[in-house]
Amino acid sequence: MNTPIRRLSIFSLFLLLVLMLNVTWIQGFQAEAIRDDPLNTRKFSERLSEQRGPIQVADENVAFSDNIAEEGKPPRFQREYTGGGLYTPIVGSFRTYGASGIEYTENSLLDGSDDRLAVRNFRDIITGREPEGAQVQLTLDPAVQKAAYEGFKNLGGKNGAAVALDPQTGAILGAVSYPSYDANDVTSITDTEQAVANYTELENDPRKPLLNRALNERYPPGSTFKVVTASAAMEYLDAGPDSTMDAPDSLDLGRELPNATPGGTCNGGQPDTLAHSIQISCNTSMANWAIEAGGQNMSDQAAAYGFHPSAEAAESAEELTVPLEVTPSYVPVETDPNILGRAGIGQSNVEATPLQMAMVASGVANSGEVMRPYVVDTVRDSDLSVVTQTTPESYSQAVSASTAEDLTEMMVGVTQQGGSGTNAAISGVEVAGKTGTAETGEGNDTHNWFIGFAPADDPQIAVAVVVEFGGGSGNELAAPIARQMMEAAVL
């Protein structure tokens, strides 16, 4: 063999070796990453011949696959959804060009490719049985979900979100984002062009129906954040319900902070108790409590409920997923007393998702312990054997049990006569709550909030509701929706 041929042979052998190494790397080490890449659309379009498992709420299918192929032809499975836009923000949609929600996060279980289904898959190969994905059972309570969704529909087109948690487990009983969309409009496999056009229209809709406001939109929480401020006062300043703080009719925090209470006063301009300040939602006393507690203590107390002091801190912390991604909420460490005072009433740089404020209510309801939220209860194989079962897990101990008990009593006063949240009251059931009306910038309407739980003496549900740019009060717009959600769970 002459020298040129030998060199060419060696070079060809080298190229073959590089090719083999590349194939081994891709198939052995990068397969999962490529499969989960959101830009990889083949993983969706090529699954049309496989039957995905259903997604269930209360043992009823809310997403399932229907074989629409003609008799004698290879199967083609169309994904179908029930409930219109009721469950879409959580369930999501499975499209030939992408996926979202549970359809995306649990894709490998639903399509049967997950390693945890390997034994079943091997058995199916041996027996010749058609492969089928696993069932994903959600924690949602259909009555709670419907109560929230219908509540927003009855508001006449206002955007917003609502979240309900089981305080003892962290199970998500309801998660509504309004407006929503019908997933059937974007998943057709027989008219893909129209499905893509419909999705593009949703992407360009100024009301953002594709946004899951419950988990991924941050708002100033307004006076609902006073529960966190009261927590800091009790945990760091040894305050109690009867402890008093200066409550002038207005407070200079760089600009005037008035009281939005009846008559514009909390206690005739005199020092007010912490309990009464929560009951009537006094701005000036709660701002003073925040200043007295200090920026570091306020931020630390908020962090105990699940907030982060900064975006950098959120990136370094353990990511919260339910398993859908959750946008972090923020309470920075403020050193300027003017900014800190406004932060104490849920303004300034305080930003919270509805899920985060539901976690605050849930923590108070559960003797100060915040449970980690989750929405996937059980995954079952096609033979109904359990593949995974979520075990409730503690997220943090936000406050002591005694502080939580005092906070509960104060929040009960909010929904009783003389309180700021009477529209959340349920006949025969004691309800703990807190209203909120958040400023959104000059010339804009306010956001309207309510957080709470029921029954106050044996909490079964904790809720958070926000109405975007409602322009009213939390009691007027958000509290009725919260009441309907709580009624659905406790009556």
Structure write-up:
There is one protein chain. With 491 residues, the chain is α+β, with helices and mostly antiparallel strands. It has 19 helices and 19 strands. The chain has a domain at 216-490: DD-peptidase/beta-lactamase superfamily (Beta-lactamase, 3-Layer(aba) Sandwich), CATH 3.40.710. It has a six-stranded mixed sheet, with no helix packed on it. Strands 8-7-19-18-17 form a five-stranded antiparallel sheet. A two-stranded antiparallel ribbon has the order 4-5. Helix 8 packs antiparallel against helix 19, helix 11 (226-236) packs across helix 14 (295-305) and helix 12 crosses helix 18. The radius of gyration is 26 Å and the shape is elongated. The mean pLDDT is 92.
Which short descriptors sum up this protein?
491 residues, alpha+beta, Beta-lactamase, six-stranded mixed β-sheet, five-stranded antiparallel β-sheet, 19 strands, 38% helix, elongated
Instruction: Report the top-level CATH class of the domain at 216-490.
Output: Alpha Beta
Overall geometry comes to: elongated
Helix content class: 25-40%
Major sheet: size, sense and barrel closure? 6 strands, mixed
Number of helices: 19
| Strand fraction | 15-25%
Structural class: alpha+beta
CATH superfamily of the domain at 216-490: DD-peptidase/beta-lactamase superfamily
Known CATH architecture of the domain at 216-490:
3-Layer(aba) Sandwich
Radius of gyration: 26 Å
Q: Oligomeric status of the shown chains? A: single chain
> What is the number of E strands?
19
CATH names the topology of the domain at 216-490 as Beta-lactamase
| Strand order, largest beta sheet | 3-2-1-6-14-15
Mean pLDDT: 92
Terminal CA distance reads 91 Å
Low-confidence stretches: none
